[in-house]
C-alpha cells in the first residue's frame, strides 16, 4: 500500500494492459504452467488468473531487459568520450554491484530509460531547426514515459537542465552561429512539452490530476524521518558503493582537472550539481544505492571522461585494468552477500 501511494500509475497500467493482451492468448497456458510446479503451495498466488501469471514473465525476465542498458550507454560514451571508452563502459556496466544486487527489480531497468532519454537529448542539442525540435520532443517524451512509470526519475529533468546550461555556456555560445541568450529556455520548453504528453493522455482518459498525484506521493514519502547530516554524506557513500568506488573517484578527480583541458566535462559537472541538489534537498530518504541506480551509467561516462584528463597512453590503460580488477570482487561481495 505504501509503495502504491508513492508511485505513478505507469506500472499498474502497463501490467493491466499486458493482462488484457494475455487473456485468451495461446501463450498464456504454457507461460502459466511454468510457475505452477514452484508455486502450487502458495494460496495467494493461486487466486491469480492465468493471464496475470503469464504477465509476471515481464518481471521474471528483468535481468535481460536491464542488460539492454549497454546499448545506449555505449552510444552515449562513444559520442561524449571516444570509442575505447565506449567499450570499457559496456564492461563496467556489467560489473556495477547494484545491477547484480537488485536484478529482479525494475530499479535495474531504470538506467536503460534514463540513458536512452539522455542520449536522445544530447543528439538534439547538436541539431538545429526542426530536427532539433523533433529530437527534443522525443527526449521529453521518453522522460515523461519514465516518470509515468516511476517517480524516481524526478531529478532527471534537472540533469538535463544543468547539462543544457553547461552546453550553452561552453560550446553553443562560442560557435560562429551562436544561439541567443534565451536558447536554454527554448530547449526546456520544447523538452517539457514532450515530457507532458503521457501525463496529458492519462489525465484526459483517466480524469486524474497528475499534480494531486505527485502531492500525495510526496506526502507519503516525506514522512520517513532521516537524520539530515548523516544522510547528506551517506547517500553518496551508498550510491558509490553500489555503482563502483573506482568509477566514482575517477569522476570526481576528472572534475578537479577539467580546467587543464580544452573540452569541459559537461556531463560530470551536470551530474555533480544534480546529485548535490538531491542530497541537500533531503528528498531521498534512504536506499540511495538502489534508487539512484538510474544515474549510475552517467558516473561511468563521467569517470571515463575524467580518466582521459588525468592520464593518457599506457598509464590510462593500466588504470582501467586495475579498476576493473578491483570492481570484480566488490560486485561479488555485495551481490553475493
Give a quick precis of the structure:
This protein has 337 residues and is mainly α. The protein is built from 20 helices and no strands.
Characterization of the model:
The protein has 337 residues and is an all-alpha fold. The relative contact order is 0.12. Helices cover 73% and strands 0% of the residues. Helix 7 runs parallel beside helix 19 and helix 10 packs parallel to helix 12. The model has no long low-confidence stretch (mean pLDDT 88). It contains 20 helices and no strands. The radius of gyration is 21 Å and the shape is globular.
How is this fold's topology laid out?
Layout: H1 2-5, H2 10-22, H3 28-39, H4 50-55, H5 57-60, H6 62-67, H7 70-80, H8 83-94, H9 97-101, H10 110-125, H11 129-149, H12 156-170, H13 183-206, H14 210-221, H15 228-243, H16 245-256, H17 266-280, H18 288-291, H19 296-310, H20 314-336
Helix pairs in contact: 7-8, 7-10, 7-19, 8-19, 10-11, 10-12, 11-13, 12-13, 12-17, 16-19
Amino acid at each position: 500500500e505504501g509503495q502504491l501511494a508513492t508511485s505513478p500509475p505507469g506500472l499498474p497500467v502497463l501490467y493491466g494492459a499486458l493482462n488484457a493482451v494475455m487473456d485468451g492468448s495461446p501463450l498464456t497456458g504454457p507461460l502459466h504452467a511454468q510457475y505452477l510446479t514452484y508455486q502450487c503451495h502458495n494460496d495467494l498466488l493461486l487466486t491469480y488468473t492465468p493471464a496475470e501469471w503469464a504477465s509476471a514473465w515481464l518481471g521474471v525476465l528483468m535481468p535481460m531487459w536491464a542488460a539492454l542498458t549497454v546499448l545506449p550507454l555505449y552510444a552515449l560514451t562513444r559520442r561524449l568520450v571516444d570509442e575505447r571508452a565506449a567499450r570499457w563502459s559496456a564492461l563496467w556496466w556489467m560489473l556495477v554491484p547494484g545491477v547484480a544486487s537488485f536484478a529482479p527489480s525494475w530499479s535495474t531497468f531504470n538506467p536503460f530509460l534514463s540513458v536512452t532519454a539522455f542520449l536522445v537529448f544530447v543528439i538534439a542539442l547538436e541539431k538545429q531547426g526542426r530536427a532539433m525540435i523533433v529530437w527534443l520532443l522525443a527526449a521529453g517524451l521518453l522522460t515523461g514515459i519514465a516518470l509515468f512509470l516511476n517517480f524516481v526519475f524526478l531529478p532527471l529533468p534537472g540533469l538535463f537542465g544543468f547539462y543544457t546550461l553547461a552546453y550553452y555556456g561552453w560550446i553553443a555560445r562560442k560557435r560562429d552561429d551562436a544561439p541567443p541568450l534565451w536558447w536554454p529556455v527554448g530547449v526546456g520548453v520544447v523538452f517539457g512539452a514532450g515530457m507532458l504528453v503521457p501525463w496529458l493522455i492519462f489525465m484526459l482518459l483517466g480524469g486524474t490530476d497528475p499534480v494531486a498525484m505527485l502531492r500525495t506521493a510526496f506526502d507519503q514519502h516525506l514522512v520517513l524521518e532521516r537524520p539530515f547530516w548523516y544522510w547528506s554524506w551517506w547517500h553518496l557513500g551508498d550510491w558509490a558503493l553500489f555503482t563502483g568506488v573506482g568509477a566514482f573517484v575517477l569522476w570526481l578527480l576528472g572534475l578537479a582537472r577539467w580546467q587543464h583541458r580544452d573540452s569541459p566535462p559537461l556531463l560530470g559537472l551536470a551530474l555533480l550539481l544534480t546529485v548535490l541538489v538531491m542530497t541537500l534537498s533531503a528528498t531521498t530518504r534512504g536506499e540511495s544505492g538502489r534508487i539512484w541506480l538510474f544515474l549510475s551509467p552517467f558516473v561511468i561516462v563521467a569517470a571515463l571522461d575524467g580518466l582521459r584528463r588525468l592520464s593518457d597512453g599506457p598509464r590510462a590503460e593500466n588504470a582501467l585494468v586495475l579498476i576493473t580488477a578491483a570492481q570484480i570482487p566488490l560486485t561479488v561481495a555485495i551481490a553475493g552477500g
